[in-house]
């Protein structure tokens, strides 16, 4: 059984036991989050249910493992012959979650 969920403006294909790194979620490590209005597609072994826009009654449970920061990205801007150089770094705040349960009620 798998589902396609939408969170933080992105879509993910998840199965039970899948580990994801999502944008920072306001939840403590060890908490369980349920996604009800963000399941776009749900697939059993024999049947696929497509939502319009979401699947009614579908629930995906996520357990928060830890909060972390992504790799450092360098943003460098330069205009030649103008002595303009601008260097900035960015690290995205992330949350690592594990999918614990997918069900349709």
Question: How are the SSEs placed, and which strands pair?
Answer:
Layout: E1 2-7, E2 10-15, E3 19-23, E4 32-35, E5 39-43, E6 48-50, E7 58-69, E8 73-79, E9 84-90, E10 93-104
Antiparallel strand pairs: 1-2, 1-5, 3-10, 4-7, 5-6, 7-10, 8-9
Q: What would you note in describing this structure?
A:
GO terms for molecular function: rRNA binding; structural constituent of ribosome. This protein binds to 23S rRNA in the presence of protein L20. InterPro entries: bL21-like (IPR028909), bL21-like_sf (IPR036164), Ribosomal_bL21 (IPR001787), Ribosomal_bL21_CS (IPR018258). Part of the 50S ribosomal subunit. Contacts protein L20. Belongs to the bacterial ribosomal protein bL21 family. The chain has 105 residues and is mainly β. It has one domain (2-104). 0% of the residues lie in helices and 64% in strands. The chain has a four-stranded antiparallel β-sheet, with no helix packed on it. A four-stranded antiparallel β-sheet has the order 3-10-7-4, with no helix packed on it. The protein is elongated. It starts with a strand and ends with a strand. The mean pLDDT is 95.
Helix content range = under 10%
Instruction: Quickly count the domains.
Output: 1
- What class would the helix/strand composition place it in? mainly beta
* Mean pLDDT rating: 95
Instruction: Please provide the count of β strands.
Output: 10
SSE pattern, N- to C-terminal: EEEEEEEEEE
Strand order of the biggest β-sheet? 2-1-5-6
Strand content: over 45%
* Largest pleated sheet: 4 strands, antiparallel
Helical run tally:
0
Q: Give the uncertain stretches in residue-range form.
A: none
Distance between the termini: 14 Å
Roughly how many Å is the radius of gyration?
19 Å
Shape: elongated
């Amino acid at each position: 059984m798998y589902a396609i969920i939408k969170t933080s403006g992105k879509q993910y294909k998840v199965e039970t036991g899948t580990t994801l790194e999502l944008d920072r979620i306001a939840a403590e490590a060890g908490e369980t989050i349920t996604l009800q209005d963000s399941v776009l597609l749900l697939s059993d072994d024999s049947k696929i249910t497509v939502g319009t826009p979401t699947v009614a009654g579908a629930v995906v449970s996520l357990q928060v493992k830890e909060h972390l920061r992504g790799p450092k990205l360098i943003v460098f801007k330069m205009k030649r012959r103008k002595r303009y150089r601008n260097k900035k770094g960015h690290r995205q705040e992330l949350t690592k979650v594990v999918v614990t349960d997918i069900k349709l009620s």
